[in-house]
């Protein structure tokens, strides 16, 4: 099943042509990694899926992006709903300066659709899903800022999961973390595959190899190669992919 | 040798500068304590002046200063904070923002006596509030406004944009992100500036001179339309218009000491609060 489909996606920031004719189909409940050298547009591509680029001045987008059966760049798109359904975790762990509980409950509270009781059970479930429950169950009401970097990042994942997303966008989620926390997040990604489609941008080629089912290689705004990770890594079709994977440039 | 001498003289120069600035403060505080402490007593603080202000205490002035500062802060803080939020999050054109900021900074630089005259013209005469607690508080609020706006704007700018991104990414609307993330995160700094502004407002004389204060008034204010006494003006009146200086000058120093302690305690509350809140939320 295809979860996200982009067709002829072009994106400009002013005169800067950041994404060029990107066509890709992202499979449901798989991990898709987007790799490529700095500035190739992989983060920008990720941010088009929950329209976080909308805040940038002089943004120009053409082509379509379908998430499920919805064209998300329609004028009538409800951005709050889109962003709840397409969750995002950032490079630097950024929990709010609130308690652990309030961080996870944030998305539910802004929706305002759930009773207190429901909120509590969803918070617990999300923390469990992010493998954080056992570490924080006794201090749900202490500040999230007191957690370690890796815990903070898992809290951010739990916070996104609380919205019951269909897609989870991870923008270099481990680049600010130590190796152990990184390993934990990677395992977590594999475990979460059953419930969400995961898109992960990473600088770490080995990481892409370890956790992804599909890999997209981007270069200068183009989607150079996209396919099953095994194939992309073992028999890349494009010379640029091969060069990047073998470390000739990057 | 020459170089060593040069660097030594530089260090001596720096030390002198520091010692001079601290020295002024210490000398100033000590002289007020020495001249003022003799009249300070429980009675001095809790009773009204008597016999043409040659005896008695400063209670009405203390109450007047409390109400003036309290009302001025209550009026200026919401307006100031909301203006800052507008400038920070909603104003679109940068030209408009910088124009408003220039206006605000100009307002911050206006001498306080001008505020007094402005308050008299606008609130006392034009709006007909007469010389009253209300006119004085409004005038002080106008004086406090640019300080509150600038401080709140700084507080909002110091909130990491990561938090707003996270809020948007979780599906919050702009209004929700501002109300639930931006403002609460900036709150410790906004609060500190509010307390500092309270101290500033409590000590102002010129803005209330024509708008709120009575020279001598044994009554406590009963409504917003009453004239009040206020500590800074009380000191000014005793020193300039008193006729029995031998008795009145010590009272003036006593009042000055009380005012000084009041402002110092307000400022130190701000410092302690900021320290605590920063310790509580680290990021």
Cα distance, first to last residue of chain B?
48 Å
Strand elements of chain B, count: 2
Gyration radius of chain B, rounded: 23 Å
Shape of chain A: globular
Instruction: Return the CATH class of the largest domain in chain B.
Output: Mainly Alpha
CATH superfamily of the largest domain in chain B: MetI-like
Summarize, please.
The complex is a heterodimer of chains A (250) and B (283). In chain A, 36% of the residues lie in helices and 27% in strands.
Describe the protein's architecture and organization.
The complex is a heterodimer of chains A (250) and B (283). Chain A is α/β, with parallel strands linked by helices and 250 residues long. Chain A has a single domain, classed as P-loop containing nucleotide triphosphate hydrolases (Rossmann fold, 3-Layer(aba) Sandwich). Helix content of chain A is 36%, strand content 27%. Chain A is built from ten helices and ten strands. Chain A has helices at residues 42-48, 79-85, 100-111, 116-129, 133-136, 149-161, 179-192, 205-211, 229-234, 239-245, and strands at 2-13, 16-27, 31-35, 59-67, 70-71, 86-89, 167-171, 197-201, 214-219, 222-228. In chain A, the strands form two sheets. Chain A has a six-stranded mixed β-sheet, sandwiched between helices. In chain A, strands 2-1-4-5 form a four-stranded antiparallel β-sheet, covered by helices on one side. Chain B is mainly α. Chain B is built from eleven helices and two strands, in the order ααββααααααααα. Chain B has helices spanning 2-36, 42-46, 59-90, 94-109, 112-126, 133-157, 161-169, 174-202, 206-209, 231-241, 245-280, and strands at 49-50, 55-56. In chain B, helix 1 (2-36) crosses helix 11. The mean pLDDT of chain B is 86. The chains are: A alpha/beta (250), B mainly alpha (283). The A-B interface holds A 50, 52, 55, 79-84, 87-88, 90, 92, 94-98, 106-107, 109-111, 143, 145-146, 156, 159-160, 163 and B 160, 162-163, 165-173, 176, 180-181, 184-185, 280-283.
């Amino acid at each position: 099943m295809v979860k996200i489909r982009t067709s002829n996606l072009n994106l400009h920031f002013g005169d800067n042509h950041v994404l060029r004719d990107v066509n890709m189909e992202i499979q449901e409940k798989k991990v898709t990694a987007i790799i490529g050298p700095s500035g190739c547009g992989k983060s920008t591509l990720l941010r088009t899926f929950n329209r976080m680029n909308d805040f940038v001045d002089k943004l120009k987008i053409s082509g379509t992006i379908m998430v499920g059966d919805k064209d998300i760049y329609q004028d009538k798109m409800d951005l709050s709903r889109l962003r709840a359904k397409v969750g995002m975790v950032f490079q630097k762990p950024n929990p709010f300066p609130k308690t652990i509980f309030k961080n996870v409950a944030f998305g539910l509270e802004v929706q305002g659709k759930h009773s207190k009781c429901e909120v509590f059970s969803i918070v617990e479930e999300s923390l469990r899903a992010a493998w954080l429950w056992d570490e924080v169950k006794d201090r749900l009401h202490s500040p999230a800022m007191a957690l370690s970097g890796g815990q903070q990042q898992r809290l951010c994942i739990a916070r996104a999961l609380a919205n019951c997303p269909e897609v989870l966008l991870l923008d270099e989620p481990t680049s600010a973390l130590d190796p152990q926390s990184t390993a934990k997040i990677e395992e977590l990604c594999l475990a979460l595959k059953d419930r969400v489609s995961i898109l992960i941008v990473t600088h770490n080629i080995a990481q892409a190899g370890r956790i992804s089912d599909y890999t997209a290689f981007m270069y200068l705004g183009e989607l150079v190669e996209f396919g099953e990770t095994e194939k992309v890594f073992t028999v890349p079709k494009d010379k640029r992919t091969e060069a990047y994977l073998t470390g000739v440039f990057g | 040798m020459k170089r060593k001498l040069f660097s030594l003289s530089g260090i001596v120069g720096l030390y002198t500068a520091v010692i001079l600035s601290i020295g002024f403060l210490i000398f100033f505080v000590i002289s007020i304590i020495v001249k003022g402490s003799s009249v300070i007593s429980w009675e001095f603080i809790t009773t009204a002046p008597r016999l043409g202000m040659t005896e008695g205490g400063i209670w009405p002035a203390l109450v007047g200063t409390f109400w003036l500062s309290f009302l001025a802060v209550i009026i200026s803080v919401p307006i100031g904070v909301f203006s800052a939020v507008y400038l920070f999050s909603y104003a679109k054109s940068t030209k408009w923002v910088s124009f408003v900021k220039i206006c605000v900074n100009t307002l911050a630089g206006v001498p306080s006596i001008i505020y007094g005259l402005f308050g008299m013209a606008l609130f006392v005469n034009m709006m007909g509030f007469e010389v009253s607690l209300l006119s004085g508080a409004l005038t002080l609020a106008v004086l406090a406004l640019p300080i509150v706006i600038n401080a709140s704007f700084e507080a909002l700018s110091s909130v990491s944009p990561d938090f707003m991104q996270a809020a948007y990414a979780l599906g919050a609307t702009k209004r929700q992100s501002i109300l639930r993330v931006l403002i609460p995160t900036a709150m410790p700094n906004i609060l500190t500036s509010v307390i500092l502004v309270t101290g500033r407002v409590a000590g102002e004389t010129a803005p209330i001179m024509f708008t709120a204060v009575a020279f001598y008034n044994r009554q406590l204010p009963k409504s917003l339309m009453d004239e009040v006494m206020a500590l800074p003006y009380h000191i000014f009146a005793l020193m300039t218009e008193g006729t029995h200086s031998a008795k009145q000058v010590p009272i003036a120093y006593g009042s000055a000491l009380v005012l000084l302690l009041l402002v110092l305690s307000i400022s130190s509350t701000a410092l302690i609060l900021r320290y605590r809140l920063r310790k509580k939320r680290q990021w």
